[in-house]
Amino acid sequence: MQRLRGSDAYAIYSDTPTSPFITLKAAIYRPTDEKDHPDREAIKGFITRAIAKVGPARAGLGIIRVPLDLHHPVWVQLPDFRADDHIHEAVLPSPGGKAQLCDFLSDLVAKPLDMSRPLWEIWVVDGLEGGRTAIVFKVHHALVDGKTLARLIEQAHSDGKGVSSEQPEAIPGKEPLPGKSRLISDALIDLAKSYTVELPHYYRYLQRARRHAAAVRESGGNLVKPFSAPFTLLNVARASSTRIYRYESISLPDFKILARQFDCTINTLVIGVCSEALRRYLQELDALPSESLITAMPVGDPSATRLEQLLGSGIHNNNLAVAILPLYQNITDFGQRLRAIKDASKAAIDHVLHEEGRRFDNYLDFLPGTAIRAMNAAIIRRQKKKLKPHANLVISNVPGPRKTLYALDGRLQMEELLSVGNLMDNGHLNITVWSYVDKLCFSFLFRKDALPDPDNLVTHLHNVVAELQHARAN
Questions:
Q1: What does the alpha-carbon distance between residue 388 and residue 397 come to, in Å, rounded to a whole number?
Q2: Residues 214-397+438-473, CATH architecture
Q3: What is the overall mean pLDDT for the chain?
Q4: 74-109 pLDDT per residue, tens
Q5: Which candidate, 303, 305, 301, places its Cα nearest to that of 314?
Q6: At what angle do helices 266-284 and 455-473 cross, to 10 degrees?
Q7: Residue 454 and residue 467: Cα distance in Å, rounded?
Q8: Domain coordinates of the chain in residue numbers?
Q9: Packing angle of the helix pair 6-13, 369-384 (nearest 10 deg)
């Protein structure tokens, strides 16, 4: 039994019936031999073996919350766990194309996980056109972040005709589930330890971290203050549990050429094309604000390991921090906008790196669940009053596997890997970008009925990339 770290517990406290805090990863496969189509049982066998190979300790974890949320929940190995109970099957309606897959993923991402069981499901989806199959991973964010899930997916596959050489995780010994009295007594003991032992050490760590704040002050002119985003239709209060998922795949090599042409990183260009697509979408709705839109961008947190050692935590699944940066859609020249985004992105990431230990997410380890839930409720009240939100949307960019992955000893080749982020109750749009081999996939998750004609935004992004490629060719 181990206590959740604050960032993982935050995902539990933020999970609501209208905004389950989950992520989907959909791997689409084709048979390497057109005459060889593995059946469902063979694919389920591959999944079961992959779980046993790379994730048996994580797969059987469940959470138990402390009464009154006195302290963060605890991870426990559930005694009745069976991997087969979490593997499900589905068949897409004809013709099994992109539209039908998007409809299936839209429904799946909107349904909460059973919080009394291990927080994941895997779906084997047949009926895709061309004889293809999809394996969809549905996981709670408390259990894994995007980079970790990408690594686990890669470890579960082979990069040729053989099998992965990764060593399996060790499975911890099982213990009786804690009762209410133990949950409360352990919570009080851990709280006392947190405030009398860990917090003083943590404070000294903060003092040392301040020596590295010079870079933050130097770039402070490019930093966005919290809750300074303009209120737009992206933030109008609407508590709908239904979702719309769409995706657009483009050539990664071509995108890299564009990034070199504009002398920027792939991440900067990703934000730039999203900015332009949003500008066109809001403009046609006569809803484009004069102020810059603000995006929240998850970034890797290199300080997580040091803080783990400081706080003596064993399980830490979300090694992420959030950078806040403007999209500058009010700069009409695309090249100038990219340069502004490039500078703002560097400043925001520098701020995250140099503020290690002093960011709000670092204090989650010491905040009880009641405080975190109260904070989330206050944000929703701001939204209902149409006050400035923390951000207008979320854009994340995660590099996926660089080598082609195979399943079932090479019988199935992964063609595409889609990633779907989550929506919280105060947001209606999440854009998640994942790369896989030579493809870059832009995934859009909308809250249904919150934004008019959401498919137009996807069309605009497609057109922006096509226009940039056409301009380069000429």
A1: 25
A2: 2-Layer Sandwich (3.30)
A3: 86
A4: 999 888 888 899 999 999 999 999 999 999 999 999
A5: 305
A6: 120
A7: 21
A8: 214-397+438-473
A9: 50
